[in-house]
Design a protein that fits this description.
The complex is a heterodimer of chains A (112) and B (117). Chain A starts with a strand and ends with a strand. Chain A is built from no helices and 11 strands. In chain A, the strands form 2 sheets. In chain A, strands 2, 4, 5, 9, 10 and 11 form a 6-stranded mixed β-sheet that branches. Chain A has a 5-stranded antiparallel β-sheet with strand order 1-3-8-7-6, with no helix packed on it. Chain A is 0% helix and 56% strand. By secondary structure, chain B is mainly β. Chain B is 0% helix and 48% strand. Chain B contains no helices and 11 strands. In chain B, the strands form 2 sheets. In chain B, strands 2, 4, 5, 6, 9, 10 and 11 form a 7-stranded mixed β-sheet that branches. In chain B, a hairpin with a 2-residue loop joins β5 and β6. Chain B starts with a strand and ends with a strand. Classes of the chains: A mainly beta (112), B mainly beta (117). Chains A and B meet through β4, β5 and β10 of A and β5, β9 and β10 of B.
C-alpha cells in the first residue's frame, strides 16, 4: 500500500536555528513529490514539486531535495512567520499531480 | 485572481441530516478535486473532476457521498444521511491541467469544517 510518513511530528526552533524536515515514502510509480505549507484554518499552500531523485528546489529560506525513498525540506535561518504545518504528498496517478497521498505533516514552531 | 472558494466555512448538523458543501474553483481550471481530513488523520483524496466528468472517484467512502459538477464550473459534495464519522474538514482544490511543469501544484480552498453531532 502506498504510504507517506513525516518526521518529526513537531519541531520547535529558535529564530535563526536551521533544521530539516523528513518525508519518507513507499509508492509504486511515483509521479511527483509535493511540499505544501498549511496555516491554521487555511488550506494547504503549494511550495515545491520534485520529480526525480537528485532534484532540488529553493524558495527563500526553504530548500527541498529528493532521493529515491525520501525528501527533505531544509529551513535555513527560519523566522517566526515560517511557523506552520508542512505537508508532504506524493502523486501516483496517470497524470502528474493527480490523486495525492498526503503525509501527516510536521508542525513547525519558530520562536523569536 | 480569486482563489478557490468553499462554502460554508463551518457546518454543524445532526446525525441523519443532509449537508451540501460547495466549491468554486479558480476560473478556467478544468481539474477540481475533493479531499478531506478527519480528526487526527492525514488528508485523504475523495475524487477528481475533469470539467464535468468524474475522472477518479476511488476515494469516495460510500454511497452516502454524492459529488456533482454541473457545467464544469462549481462543484457540490452532498452527504446524505450524515454519520458521526463524516466529521472533518473537507477541502476542494483546482488546477489548470494535470501535466508536468516546474510550477505545477494545486490551489486549495480553506475548507469546510463539518461537525456531525
Amino acid at each position: 500500500e502506498d504510504q507517506v510518513t513525516q518526521s518529526p511530528e513537531a519541531l520547535r526552533l529558535q529564530e535563526g536555528e536551521s533544521s530539516s524536515l523528513n518525508c519518507s515514502y513507499t509508492v509504486s510509480g511515483l509521479r511527483g513529490l509535493f511540499w505544501y505549507r498549511q496555516d491554521p484554518g487555511k488550506g494547504p499552500e503549494f511550495l515545491f514539486t520534485l520529480y526525480s531523485a537528485g532534484e532540488e528546489k529553493e524558495k527563500e529560506r526553504l530548500k527541498a531535495t529528493l532521493t529515491k525513498k525520501e525528501s527533505f525540506l531544509h529551513i535555513t535561518a527560519p523566522k517566526p512567520e515560517d511557523s506552520a504545518t508542512y505537508l508532504c504528498a506524493v502523486s501516483r496517478g496517470r497524470y502528474y499531480g493527480q490523486n495525492f497521498v498526503f503525509g501527516p505533516g510536521t508542525r513547525l514552531s519558530v520562536l523569536p | 485572481e480569486a482563489g478557490v472558494t468553499q462554502f460554508p466555512s463551518h457546518s454543524v448538523i445532526e446525525k441523519g441530516q443532509t449537508v451540501t458543501l460547495r466549491c468554486d474553483p479558480i476560473s478556467g481550471h478544468d481539474n477540481l478535486y475533493w479531499y478531506r481530513r478527519v480528526m487526527g488523520k492525514e488528508i485523504k483524496f475523495l475524487l477528481h473532476f475533469v470539467k464535468e466528468s468524474k475522472q477518479d472517484e476511488s476515494g469516495m467512502p460510500n454511497n452516502r457521498f454524492l459529488a456533482e459538477r454541473t457545467g464544469g464550473t462549481y462543484s457540490t459534495l452532498k452527504v446524505q444521511p450524515a454519520e458521526l464519522e463524516d466529521s472533518g474538514v473537507y477541502f476542494c482544490a483546482s488546477s489548470q491541467d494535470s501535466g508536468r511543469g516546474s510550477n505545477y501544484g494545486y490551489t486549495f480552498g480553506s475548507g469546510t469544517r463539518l461537525t456531525v453531532v
